[in-house]
């Protein structure tokens, strides 16, 4: 029997590989299976850790400009094939803002600085998660860091913040490194919003970044003026592309600045990176999971993404979670054959999330599940 284990991180408790390896121990305590553990993430928080730990990569650190102009130390990963794995939030995340959010001044400069650091270290392929941003400035900060210059009507260089957007009249690209043309970018983007309008970045996501209700119309119009100038320079329409409005318009900036770029679902990017399909072709059982399995999980979160991939090869799919809710039954319709909580009984949240307890609970649950599967094997009733 071959088992593929691909479990998302249990946030605040176990990383993806810690959860997967604990599960593997439990399986091997119950049966002599061929167990393959794969890292898993959705392109957001935890993606760098999952891919670096699971694919034998290494961590890199670089000091960059934070969202409010402060210096921050950003961590990203480089895999064996020189693919850089990044989370935008390391350089321009909302958690890096101390005090009140200011969408007029918050900038994504650090994202561009992080990308250039990886380019200088020999990376030509990038996987970048863009969730959790503090910015709403259409990616002008990142673009400026990459070498683009944004000028006003008098030819004066503008600061890379939202307040400059409506003033942009000319763009120069002479200082953009030629190496960027040789790079390819996969941007983990799970929203389909355009850049402007009622479904755009300002109206939909602005509030969580400090945009006041009475400012939305004005700021959206400024974003439109900026987009018009950028699109005129690019010679193509980009603001209506699905995902252009992601991360305060960072999706739009990636589409404009880079020749080889793809906005794609985070889970799909990760599944491609870990080459999950290659293992699923010969698998009998797949074990997936996450910290909390609920009705939202059925909408396409990591475990369901794995289940859908597994069903192409007729694998049985089991999900193990820290907690499960009543509406988690919706996951059964999306390819998860059965799910269980790893919590053995009543305990405090603190105890449940304690790493040693979580590891033990994962191992014990996996062992009991596969003892049952092994006992059914002879009757061919479990898979």
Pick out its properties.
alpha/beta, 13 strands, 19% strand, 2 domains, 6-stranded mixed β-sheet, Glycerate kinase, domain 2, Rossmann fold, 383 residues, 5-stranded parallel β-sheet
Describe the structure.
It is a single chain. By secondary structure, the protein is of the alpha/beta class. The chain folds into 2 domains: 2-40 and 278-377, Glycerate kinase, domain 1 (Rossmann fold, 3-Layer(aba) Sandwich); 47-267, Glycerate kinase, domain 2 (Alpha-Beta Complex). The protein is built from 13 helices and 13 strands. A 6-stranded mixed sheet has the order 3-4-5-6-9-10, with helices on both faces. Strands 2-1-11-12-13 form a 5-stranded parallel sheet, sandwiched between helices. α1 (16-30) packs parallel to α13.
Q: What is the strand arrangement across the widest sheet?
A: 3-4-5-6-9-10
CATH architectural grouping of the largest domain? Alpha-Beta Complex
Structural class: alpha/beta
- At the third CATH level, what is the topology name of the largest domain? Glycerate kinase, domain 2
Coarse shape: elongated
Let me know the average pLDDT: 94
**CATH class label of the largest domain:** Alpha Beta
Q: In CATH, what is the homologous superfamily of the largest domain?
A: Glycerate kinase, domain 2
Number of strands: 13
* Helix content, binned percent: 25-40%
Query: Would you identify the regions where 5 or more consecutive residues have pLDDT less than 50?
Result: 379-383
Count of helical stretches: 13
Distance between the termini: 10 Å
Number of self-contained structural domains: 2
Beta-strand residue percentage: 15-25%
Largest sheet, described in full? 6 strands, mixed
The run of helices and strands is EHEHEEEHHEHEEEHHHEHHEHEEHH
Rg, nearest Å = 23 Å
């Amino acid at each position: 029997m071959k088992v593929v284990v691909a479990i998302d991180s249990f946030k605040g408790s176990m990383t993806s590989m810690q959860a997967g390896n604990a599960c593997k121990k439990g399986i091997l305590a119950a049966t002599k299976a061929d167990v393959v553990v794969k890292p898993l993430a959705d392109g957001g928080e935890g993606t760098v850790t999952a891919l670096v730990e699971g694919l034998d990569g290494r961590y890199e650190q670089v000091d960059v400009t934070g969202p409010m102009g402060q210096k921050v130390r950003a961590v990203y990963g480089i895999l064996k094939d020189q693919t850089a794995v990044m989370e935008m939030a390391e350089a321009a995340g909302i958690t890096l803002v101390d005090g009140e959010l200011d969408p007029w001044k918050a900038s994504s400069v650090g994202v561009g600085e992080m990308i250039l650091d990886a380019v200088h270290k020999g990376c030509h392929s990038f996987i970048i998660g863009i969730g959790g941003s503090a910015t709403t400035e259409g990616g002008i900060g990142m673009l400026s860091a990459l070498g683009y210059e944004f000028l006003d009507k008098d030819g004066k260089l503008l600061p890379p913040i939202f307040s400059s957007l409506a003033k942009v009249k000319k763009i120069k690209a002479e200082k953009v490194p030629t190496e960027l043309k040789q790079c390819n970018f996969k941007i983990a983007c799970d929203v389909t919003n355009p850049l402007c309008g009622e479904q755009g970045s300002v109206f939909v996501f602005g509030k969580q970044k400090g945009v006041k209700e009475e400012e939305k119309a004005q700021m959206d119009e400024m974003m439109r003026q900026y987009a018009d100038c950028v699109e005129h320079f690019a010679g193509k329409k980009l603001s209506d592309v699905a995902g252009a409005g992601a991360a305060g318009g960072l999706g739009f900036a990636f589409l404009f600045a880079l020749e080889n770029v793809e906005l794609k679902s985070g889970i799909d990017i990760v599944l491609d990176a870990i080459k999950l399909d290659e293992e699923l072709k010969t698998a009998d059982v797949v074990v997936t999971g996450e910290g909390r399995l609920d009705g939202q999980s059925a909408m396409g979160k990591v475990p369901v993404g794995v289940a859908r991939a597994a069903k192409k090869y007729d694998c049985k799919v089991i999900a193990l979670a820290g907690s499960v809710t009543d509406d988690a039954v919706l996951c059964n319709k999306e390819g998860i054959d059965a799910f269980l909580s790893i919590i053995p009984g009543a305990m405090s949240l603190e105890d449940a999330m304690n790493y040693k307890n979580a590891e033990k609970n994962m191992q014990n649950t996996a062992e009991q599940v596969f003892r049952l599967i092994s006992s059914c094997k002879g009757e061919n009733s479990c898979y």
